[in-house]
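Hi, here's the filled form for the chain we discussed.

Project: internal
Contact: R.S.
Residues: 105
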Amino acid sequence: MPPTESNPALFGVTAVSDGSARCNAAGFESAGGTLVIGRSHAVLNGTGLAAGVTAVLQFSACSAALNSLAVYGLSSVASAAGTNEGSTLVVGSTNGSAARPANLQ
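And the returned structure, exactly as it came back:
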């Protein structure tokens, strides 16, 4: 079955652990497929975490702050979610909506 907007995981999965993204247009970005980020930091970027039309973005135990445009930027059909309540720091403006535990909103 070919990848579609309704099933972006078919584009593939990339995992980043203990990563750091600084001074980029987008710290961590997925144009398609699933991007899983754990124990990583996205600071001093234009946009900390970005997801395109067919992307799924999942993050756990991360910090995203001090980004000049947005903490995360999501297309209207992209999805993003944080896990491990209380372990992810999200500070700043956002573009799009992400499913996050209540204490991260």
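Let me know if anything looks off before we file it.
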